[in-house]
Design brief:
Elements lengths: L2 E2 L14 E8 L4 E8 L14 E2 L3 H8 L5 H18 L7 H7 L3 H28 L1 H9 L9 H12 L8 H27 L5 H4 L5 H16 L3 H23 L18 H17 L4 H18 L20 H18 L2 H27 L13 E3 L5 E3 L1
Antiparallel strand pairs: 1-4, 2-3, 5-6
Helix pairs in contact: 2-4, 2-6, 2-13, 2-14, 4-5, 4-6, 6-7, 6-9, 7-9, 9-10, 9-11, 10-11, 11-12, 11-13, 12-13, 13-14
């Protein structure tokens, strides 16, 4: 442990007056103070001050700054892996634009899937450690109207990665076991959050609803699509019904711009792109359940396109959030990628040039956005770590402890 000296309290020493020398040990979450009493016969003309401040543990500082919002990164990478798998899958679509994607080497897809797995495993490990060593922070996050919604993100990421895996088929036992492991937490969070909306005092929907609330819906829809891939249509319909029934209520609530939706700070405005993700994922889920990209899937896909155009036509909405890089920027990538996956299913069903151009544009846009975000993240990785000023605890002369 490193000790540094500084001035906190002043104790005047006079003749035959005992000196109380405080010793401070500043740790991650606590301050311990001990006193040594020294008798002296010699008068002192100056105040005596002794202090020992211990630097916080650097790794603990990282855990304290880490939060569920970082799973935006895994959502993006895992959905990208699923997009690449969808584009490279064999189909009866022989359009020349579709053949472009089939020329991509399989090694590139495996590397992307491995990168997504590594990032998701690392983020999951960090959050598990945060749960163990900073349980109060996790508890506060669970009670926050925005933070609680990102607790769905790791399970959504695992389900997306499971559907994108190149190593086993949906009907194998490994897929089945992992599906249960990842879906049960989503259902448990559903019961908690939806139950609060319906029954609990002040936590009614109109007061807490915000764009990130759509992650709870997306979790059900991703689980429904994975269940349909296994041939479990009844389970898929169950999850789809839960997700869509709450999506309709949530969408109307957000559309009215009630107090909850205006509680998002400017830095988090990229989460408005989640408006695209919910209908796009719903179209994919219904396609897997019904076995065809029918009119219902098309309507949901068209809704996501309309919302996309509505958002990009208002760049001023995101101006303040783009002034400085933040992990919230990753909220752009996941919705665009899900919409691109839906466009591939639409093009496969329609089989005309316009639909394939749309697929090409959306897929290219999602890949470019993801690559740009990875570059920005690499060059700004220090912004996610504690700075020097964050590694010390400063005590003021009026005995108040402040953490900078």
């Amino acid at each position: 442990m490193v000790e540094t000296q500084g001035i906190i309290f002043f104790f005047y020493q006079s003749k035959n007056f005992p000196i109380y020398t405080p010793h401070f040990t500043c740790e991650t979450n606590s301050l311990s103070i001990s006193y040594e009493i020294m008798d002296t016969k010699e008068p002192q003309s100056l105040p005596v001050t002794r202090v020992f401040v211990t630097q916080k543990n650097h790794f603990s500082s990282i855990l304290s700054r880490f939060h569920a919002g970082f799973f935006r990164i895994s959502l993006s990478l895992c959905s990208q892996a699923l997009l690449w798998k969808t584009l490279s899958e064999p189909s009866d679509d022989i359009h020349k634009f579709r053949n472009i994607f089939r020329m991509l080497p399989s090694t590139a897809f495996i590397l992307l899937w491995s990168l997504a797995l590594f990032s998701l495993a690392l983020l999951s490990l960090l959050y598990l450690l945060r749960l163990l060593f900073h349980f109060d922070m996790v508890k506060s996050e669970f009670s926050h109207h925005v933070g609680v919604n990102y607790l769905f993100a790791p399970w959504i990421s695992w389900l997306l990665l499971l559907q994108a895996t190149p190593f086993f088929k949906p009907k194998e036992v490994y897929f089945l076991v992992l599906w249960w492991i990842f879906v049960v937490p989503i259902v448990a969070l559903d019961i908690k959050i939806y139950g609060q909306w319906i029954t609990k005092g002040k936590r009614f929907l109109s007061g807490v609803a915000n764009p990130t609330s759509q992650l709870s819906v997306i979790g059900n829809l991703v689980g429904a699509r994975a269940a349909a891939k296994m041939g479990w249509n009844e389970s898929a319909l169950l999850l789809f019904a839960i997700g869509m029934s709450h999506y309709l209520v949530l969408f109307v609530t957000l559309y009215q711009r009630l107090p909850g939706s205006s509680s998002i700070p400017a830095m988090l405005r990229p989460v408005f792109f989640l408006f695209l993700a919910a209908p796009s994922m719903a179209s994919l889920s219904w396609d897997s359940i019904h076995g065809k990209f029918d009119s219902s899937s098309k309507m949901l896909f068209f809704l996501s396109l309309f919302l996309f155009l509505s958002l990009i036509s208002r760049p001023a909405l995101f101006k303040r959030s783009m002034k400085k890089f933040n992990v919230s920027w990753w909220a752009y990538s996941f919705p665009l990628t899900v919409m691109a996956i839906a466009s591939t299913k639409y093009a496969q069903e329609i089989k005309n040039t316009a639909s394939h151009i749309l697929m090409l544009l959306l897929s290219g846009l999602s890949v470019i956005v993801s690559l740009v975000l990875m570059v920005f993240t690499a060059f700004n990785s220090n912004s996610f770590l504690p700075s020097d000023g964050d590694d010390s605890m400063h005590c003021t002369s009026n005995k108040r402890l402040s953490i900078v």
